[in-house]
Amino acid sequence: MRIGVVTFPGTLDDRDAARAVKYAGAEAVSLWHGDADLKGVDAVILPGGFSYGDYLRCGAISRFAPVMTEIIAQANKGMPVLGICNGFQVLCEAHLLPGALTRNHELHFLCRDQTLKIENTTSAWTSNFTQGQEIVIPLKNGEGSFQCDDETLKSLEDNNRIIARYLGENPNGSRNLIAGITNERGNVVGLMPHPEHAIDSLTGPSTDGLPFFISVLTAMVGK
Amino acid sequence: MGKIVVDVMLKPEILDPQGKAVAAALPRLGFSFATDVRQGKRFEITVDGDVTAAQIAEVEKAAEVLLANPVIETFTVRAE
């Protein structure tokens, strides 16, 4: 199993994402934003950071990087894609996921351990969880407030496309406490908090992030 | 040289925390006139010669694809 991890200029969490892939038992393959070549990977992770300095809007310029043309095409054919934090923003800008991520409602950059409730265990990246499972993983972002129109929100709710919600107080003003969503097919997932930072108790608050990366291996074996 | 101006604003229903922060700062400085503030973006695009209708149409396309995110923002394009 080979999982690509994309590096844009300004990406921060590509190394941790690659490490998480290895912990899950797969091979991590570095993908460069400027190459329209996925090197034959089976899945792709868009990691966190500040790609292109967050200029214009978070993810707005990355979305047009050469590597994204291939990723969008393959995602539409069913390849699993996980966007974490900035990666989630890129997926929204690329219209692979609905809605948009805007400035946290209190305007502060947040960095803390966040409790989430897993709401969907059928997506390519969440099948290794149990329904309603509570997990603790780091949340660190300035623009993590998930926004969409009422119709989109209803569609996400009605079709079980919200994969995780924040538990407790709403950290950033996201509608319906949304921390992550998936597309209709369940292969593309966007998540604002960082599972790749919670795979080893030595370096993270828990190992609760690891099942995201194990889930995708299960999804690919099942194919 | 002609100039094309694109103004981008968050849709009214989208929370604008920056605008709210500015609205809260104004009365602290003694400015009591504002009941609300919304913050947006302005792009000034320079072109050779006078602005043509075709260029305006092109910029409108660019605004739709790149300069604004139609999911959360609206935009206006005009020659200046």
From TrEMBL, chain B:
It holds the Pfam family PurS. Keywords: ATP-binding, Cytoplasm, Ligase, Nucleotide-binding, Purine biosynthesis. Gene3D superfamilies: Phosphoribosylformylglycinamidine synthase subunit PurS (3.30.1280.10). GO terms for molecular function: ATP binding; ligase activity. The keyword Ribosomal protein does not apply. GO terms for biological process: purine nucleotide biosynthetic process. The keyword Calcium does not apply. This is Unannotated protein.
